[in-house]
Amino acid sequence: MQRIYEPRDLLEAEMLIGMLAGEGIEAFLTGRHLIGAVGELPVSGLLGMMVADEEAERARLLIDEYNGAQPLPGDEPEGYPGELIC
């Protein structure tokens, strides 16, 4: 298993796990239970996404593509130009 990504929060983690599952990649989230200790622990680096070694490169590529996605012209909400709302 390899740690491939550190999501900002649980919402991002769950969205990415679902996206990877849709591509046939099983991902696991570490640190989920540490979120309640924020204030006692450092804020960054608590969450980590793990995948099997043989899926790590493909999973990183999919996450990079997801993070680089731009809204299609005309699909932007009026109040949020340039924002991709999921």
TrEMBL record:
Chain ranges of the DUF2007 domain: 1-66
Highest taxon in the source lineage: Bacteria
Protein name: DUF2007 domain-containing protein
